[in-house]
């Protein structure tokens, strides 16, 4: 994706935390005709070996997208908070915009073996069941049901080879406009707007305090 220089995020710690917090993404790859296929699904970021990261997930076997996994590199998209920015919040500018945070991961994709799929399901359940009042563990699923479900899905792993991250948060605006955007976002009360405002506040430079 195109990222203006002022909005580029290159800190892997920030990016990896973003992926873990916004793990429900979009997996995209193309078929033999170059037609893109996309599926919305949860993906887990793992450090496979020191400094080597992968994304892991699965799709339904009835979904034809997995048939094209070996053809080319895949693209995984993760989106975070976003909000409309009215030009009425600026001193002079009359051009509105949109503030947002997003990460694109490109890499080769590999189909997982059954045991790897089960390990992936275990990791996924442990992550998302943790907040449940009565967490369900993969060991609570009887073997027959688990195996039948494993046969109905295709697990995959994407090597994290190229990372593009944008945090477009009014960094190109002057201090007055920057702080005005934060103030108006807070007043809106919208959940997305509040998250954008919080991120903008966290990224204030000394000059913007």
Automatic annotation (TrEMBL):
Gene3D superfamilies: Electron Transport, Fmn-binding Protein, Chain A. It holds the Pfam family FMN_bind_2. InterPro entries: Split_barrel_FMN-bd (IPR012349), TR_PAI2-type (IPR007396). This is FMN-binding negative transcriptional regulator. It comes from Chitinophaga silvatica.
């Amino acid at each position: 994706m195109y990222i203006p220089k002022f909005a580029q995020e290159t800190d892997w710690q920030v990016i990896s935390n973003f992926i873990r917090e916004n793990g429900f993404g979009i997996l995209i790859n193309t078929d033999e005709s170059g037609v893109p296929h996309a599926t919305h699904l949860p993906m887990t970021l793992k450090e496979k070996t020191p400094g080597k990261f992968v994304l892991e997930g699965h799709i339904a076997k009835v979904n034809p997208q997995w048939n094209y996994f070996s053809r080319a590199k895949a693209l995984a998209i993760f989106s975070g908070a976003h909000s409309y920015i009215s030009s009425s919040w600026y001193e002079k500018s009359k051009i509105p915009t949109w503030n947002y945070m997003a990460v694109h991961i490109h890499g080769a994709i590999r189909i997982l073996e059954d045991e790897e799929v089960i390990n992936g399901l275990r990791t996924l359940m442990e992550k998302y069941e943790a907040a449940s009042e009565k967490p369900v563990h993969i060991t609570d699923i009887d073997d027959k049901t688990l195996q039948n479900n494993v046969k109905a899905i295709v697990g995959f792993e994407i090597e994290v080879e190229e990372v593009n991250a944008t945090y477009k948060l009014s960094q190109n605006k002057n201090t007055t406009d920057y702080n005005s955007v934060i103030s108006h976002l807070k007043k809106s009360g919208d959940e997305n707007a509040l998250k954008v405002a919080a991120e903008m506040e966290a990224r204030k430079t000394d000059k913007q305090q």
